[in-house]
Write a structure and sequence with these properties.
With 98 residues, the chain is mainly alpha-helical. It is built from five helices and no strands.
Amino acid sequence: MKDLSYTAFQHLLRCASALKDDILQPQPHVVSVIAPPDVLPPIITEFLSNSFHITLEAVDMLWDVVKDIMWVLPTELEEREAVKTMFCLHGKDRGLGK
């Protein structure tokens, strides 16, 4: 896990966030969709492990640490709209644009 760069870590967060439906799908119906499950489905753990060249154990450790952050990350579209709004509200009069 020490070889996981900051950029790769951010990409892993985004990737895991995009997999929310796949993470929830095998969970029992009593599991809340508002909070992340405590454990990732094995297929997701394997996918992230292979995709980011880290161990299964590293994926599990990362999940324990970042699951709450990852679960509330905005989608790419939501993020783009937020940035666009920010520049419209606060950048235009400063000569900043995107």
